[in-house]
Design a protein that fits this description.
This protein has helices spanning 17-28, 35-42, 47-61, 65-72, 75-85, 88-100, 107-114, 119-133, 137-144, 147-161, 173-186, 195-204, 207-221, 225-232, 235-263, 270-280, 285-296, 300-306, 311-321. It is mostly helical. The longest helix is centred in the last third of the chain and has 29 residues, at 235-263. It has 4 domains: 17-73, Annexin (Annexin V, domain 1); 88-161, Annexin (Annexin V, domain 1, Orthogonal Bundle), CATH 1.10.220.10; 173-249, Annexin (Annexin V, domain 1), CATH 1.10.220; 251-321, Annexin V, domain 1, CATH 1.10.220. Belongs to the annexin family. InterPro entries: Annexin, Annexin_repeat, Annexin_repeat_CS, Annexin_sf. It comes from Bombyx mori.
Amino acid sequence: MAYQRAPTVVGVPNFNAVEDAAALRAAMKGFGTDEQAIIDILTTRSNMQRQAISQAFTREYGRDLIEDLKSELGGHFEDVIVALMTPPEEYLCQELHRCMEGMGTDEDTLVEILCTRTKPEIAAIVDTYERLYDRPLAEHMCSETSGDFRRLLTLIVVSGAKGARADEAPADPERARELAQELYDAGEAKWGTDEEVFNRILAHESFAQLRQIFEEYKNIAGRTVEQAIKAEIDGELKDALSAIVECVEDAAGWFARRLRRAVQGAGTDDRALVRILATRAEVDLDNVKLEYEKLFDKTLQSDISQGETSGDYKRALVALIGPA
């Protein structure tokens, strides 16, 4: 069953962009910066409201709000605030571009952004990427990845761009049975695995249809698709296909585990922490934090507070997560 997405940030009623712009200007003007005022305003407004504040700021003061914020803030706190001020698709495109530029490719980020989104979300990312970088996302990705992993990501991006499926369409049970059988025949029923079949079905079908396919697969194989993927496939492709399966069945659980990896171990993965909290706050962060507590018997707030984050950076993250 698809879960009801519950955000932690929904914007404020009786919103006034000009008043917020004035409050932000006051927080940055003169000697010192009132970081708490910036946190209080920007972590509670929706992204649409933040864009309106940005426009009002330019209109009233002839200045660029993001540039002013950058000049006043620093470190990871600045990263959070700039992420919040950027339209979500643009921010995700910047993160995709960053993870493919320079030496080596950050496959974890590619998987996190591309294997967890619905078709309409992917279509918006694809359009925005080409607008920002004057280069198709699929083309850039092909030059930075290889093998079955590259083929899967390319299929995701291309089928998203074509709007190959409407995510709102109801699942077709008959087709689900046929595709579940195809998956079984391509994996457990034969010697060696036909990754092409897994790629095609998992990249192309809607989340609703995949949910039904995975149910049918269990009936045919006596175990889950996820168990089959982990047994039959390895490397980056396994991680990518597993992410799709987990996000179809339990996106909150997948992001909770990703956050746990970001805050545990040697050093905090601040980029992942900022990216997930900033981009899921208006989507399903409330689900994610509940799932986090269920999985790890600790609240997300306490893990972030007791970890390596501190000061305004920590306060901004905790504000996005909302009360426990």
